[in-house]
Amino acid sequence: MKQCDYIFQMQRLSVNDGEGIRTTIFFKGCNLRCKWCANPESWSFTPQIMFFSHKCSSCGHCLNICPSHANELTDKNKIIFHSDICISCNACIDVCSAKARQTMGRNFSFTEVMTEIKKDMIFYEQSGGGVTFSGGEPLLHPDYIEKLLVYCQQLGISTAVESCGFFNFSQCRHLIEQFDMIFFDIKIMNDDLHINYTGQSNKKILQNIAQATQLNPNIIIRVPLINNINTDIANFEKLTYFMKKNKLNKIELLPYHSLGYEKMLSLGKSANKYTPPSTDTFLIKWEPHTRDFSRELGDQTSQYV
Ligand code: SF4
Ligand code: SF4
């Protein structure tokens, strides 16, 4: 079935998604379910409602208008949002004067996206920035991205993609060749743990990344650091071996942050809070090893951010 190309955010003046100042386009839809995900509003391929309880005044307008009875008023005058029965009709958005509700995801036309992208041409030129496709998993939208990619190239705008690596490689081969920069996440090297924490095997991901190295030399591996889950030496030894074997020599380590936890609650889902490794502990644990890994991978290893 043809997948819709919903976008849930277009973030201008972004500085964490590649070189320089960028516009980052966030696509909906991902096949992984990382327990620490920073963007769980991206998981579903279709629009979703987020309910921000701290803004809610308990006026009750959403109770009356909802055709699914997805909102409940408790004895303590609090609204509970039952996302599992919400049909995303958006009726409650209009009646909520407190702006406690928001729809994540809409079908932006190609022209709308390009208009947004073109607003910051001057910043791209001055800073060496450009456009980054993110998500969710942007490479699950190859046709839409191809159109944007071609237009960006015509305008001389640099392009990057942030991918979890779980996509159909044959559908994306021509895109992989053309991005100016590719960021691939590798969460955990042990496959059993990967399945446990992300819901999918890492085999296809590692295979896709290995294949991508044959087509594009500008690849950076990113690892979200989750304390006591993927911060052990064994994980990084396996990662180093994989990177060396595939001639990858750039890595960024991203500490976990709890933004995703708050978003999960707003989506009406339960969630666990994780922790990043403390900087001191991490560096003490890693200091004797980073030199070895640097020697293995080359001079550009280990950008601690
Ligand atoms: S979007 Fe969901 S919660 Fe809001 S009125 Fe429609 S069904 Fe009810
Ligand atoms: S309409 Fe908005 S402010 Fe009123 S009860 Fe519903 S969510 Fe809360």
UniProtKB/TrEMBL annotation:
Q: Where is the Radical SAM core domain?
A: 16-296
> What family is reported?
Belongs to the organic radical-activating enzymes family.
Q: What is its EC number?
A: 1.97.1.4
Tell me what reaction this enzyme catalyses. glycyl-[protein] + reduced [flavodoxin] + S-adenosyl-L-methionine = glycin-2-yl radical-[protein] + semiquinone [flavodoxin] + 5'-deoxyadenosine + L-methionine + H(+)
Q: What is the protein's given name? A: Pyruvate formate lyase activating enzyme
An MF annotation (GO) of this entry: 4 iron, 4 sulfur cluster binding
Stored SUPFAM superfamilies: 4Fe-4S ferredoxins, Radical SAM enzymes
Q: What class of enzyme is it?
A: oxidoreductase
| Keyword annotations of the record | 4Fe-4S, Iron, Iron-sulfur, Lyase, Metal-binding, Oxidoreductase, Pyruvate, S-adenosyl-L-methionine
**Which Gene3D superfamilies did the record assign?**
3.30.70.20, Aldolase class I (3.20.20.70)
From what organism does this protein derive? Pectinatus brassicae
Cofactor(s) this protein requires: [4Fe-4S] cluster
Q: Which sequence ranges are marked TM in the entry? A: none
